[in-house]
Amino acid sequence: MTTIIDGKAIAADVRAKIAQAVTAMQSRHNVQPALAVVLVGDDPASHVYVRNKGIATEKAGMKSIEHRLPVDAAEEDVVSLVRDLNADDTVDGILVQLPLPGHISSSRVINEIDPDKDVDGLTEVNAGRLILGKEGLVPCTPQGSVIMAKTVRPNLSGLNAVVVGRSILVGKPLSMLLLAENCTVTMAHSRTADLPAVCREADILCAAVGIPRLVKGDWVKKGAIVIDVGINRIEEQGKTRLVGDVDFDAAKENASAITPVPGGVGPMTIACLLRNTVVAAARRRGLGAVD
Ligand code: NDP
C-alpha cells in the first residue's frame, strides 16, 4: 500500500503546535510574536498570498502587520521600510513578498532584512548558516518537504536522496537539509545526464522543477519516498488543474509514500513560515527552543 502523505493534515498539526507555543509565550512572557509582510505593487497572486499569510498568522495567535507600497515605489523606499522593521523591536519576522517590480533589486532588498528576522530564510547570511550547519532560519518549502518525508521515515540517515532542481528557493536548501539528515544527496538539474537513471537511484526523490509530470512512474525506485514540490497549472480536458512535477498516478505504483498536488507540500509552506516566526521570536527574546 502506498502512503499518500497528507500535507493538509501535517500542516494542521504544525499549526496547532505553533498556536500552543504562541499561547505559552503570551501567558509566560507576555509576548505576542509579530510578522510583518511587505507587499510592493498590484500583482493579484501576491495579494492573495499576502492575505492568506495574514489570516494564518492571526489564526495562530500572532500579530500580522501588512505594509503595502505602490508599484512605482523606489528601491530606497522599500529598503528604508525594511530597515525600520529591523529596528522595530516589536517585529519578530519580516517577509518581503516576491516578485518585486522589475526596477527593484530583490537581492538587495532581501539582504537588508535582519537575518534573525528573515522568516523566509532567503538572506545570504541564512543561506551561509545552512551550509555551515549553524543555527539560522530555514526556507519554508524545503523545511516543509523534510518534515513530510520524516512523517513516513523519521530517520533518513544513510538514504540516497535525489533532488531534481537546484534553485536558491527550493532545490539547494532542500539538498542541504537532506545532507544535514545524513542522506547521501545528489542534486540534479537541467544539464544532468540521464536524469531517469539518476532518479532511479533515489530512496527519497524530490522534484522541484516547474515542469508538469516531468518525473515518470518508471523513474521511481520501488519503495521510494517521493516529495513533489512542483505546482503547475495546466489545461486538461477543458479544465484548469494543478499538477506536480511528478506523474502522480504512475509514480504511486512504485513509491512507498508520495505527496499529492494539491494538498502536499503546498500547505506546509505557510505552516513553516508561522513556525519560523515563532522560532525567530523565541530566539530574539531569549525564550528558549520551540518544538
Ligand atoms: P526554478 O525555476 O527557480 O528552478 C527550477 C529548477 O529545475 C532549476 O534548477 C532547473 O535547472 C531545473 N530544471 C529545469 N528543467 C529541468 C529538466 N528538464 N530536468 C531537470 N531539471 C530541470 O523553480 P523553483 O525552484 O522556484 O520552483 C520549482 C517548482 O516548485 C515550481 O513548480 C514551483 O511552482 C514550485 N514551488 C512550490 C512551492 C510550494 O509552496 N509548494 C514553493 C516554491 C516553488 P537549471 O538550474 O539547470 O536551470
From TrEMBL:
Catalyzed reactions: (6R)-5,10-methylene-5,6,7,8-tetrahydrofolate + NADP(+) = (6R)-5,10-methenyltetrahydrofolate + NADPH; (6R)-5,10-methenyltetrahydrofolate + H2O = (6R)-10-formyltetrahydrofolate + H(+)
Domain Tetrahydrofolate dehydrogenase/cyclohydrolase catalytic: 5-120
Residue ranges of every copy of the Tetrahydrofolate dehydrogenase/cyclohydrolase NAD(P)-binding domain listed in the record: 139-284
EC number: 1.5.1.5, 3.5.4.9
Residues that bind NADP(+): G165, R166, S167, I231
Pathway in which the depicted protein is active: One-carbon metabolism; tetrahydrofolate interconversion
Keyword tags: Amino-acid biosynthesis, Histidine biosynthesis, Hydrolase, Methionine biosynthesis, Multifunctional enzyme, NADP, One-carbon metabolism, Oxidoreductase, Purine biosynthesis
InterPro entries named among the record's database cross-references: Aminoacid_DH-like_N_sf, NAD(P)-bd_dom_sf, THF_DH/CycHdrlase, THF_DH/CycHdrlase_cat_dom, THF_DH/CycHdrlase_CS, THF_DH/CycHdrlase_NAD-bd_dom
Domain of life according to the entry: Bacteria
Purpose: Catalyzes the oxidation of 5,10-methylenetetrahydrofolate to 5,10-methenyltetrahydrofolate and then the hydrolysis of 5,10-methenyltetrahydrofolate to 10-formyltetrahydrofolate.
Subunit structure: Homodimer.
Membership in a protein family: Belongs to the tetrahydrofolate dehydrogenase/cyclohydrolase family.
Name listed for the protein in its UniProt record: Bifunctional protein FolD
Native source organism of the sequence: Hyphococcus lacteus
Encoding gene (name): folD
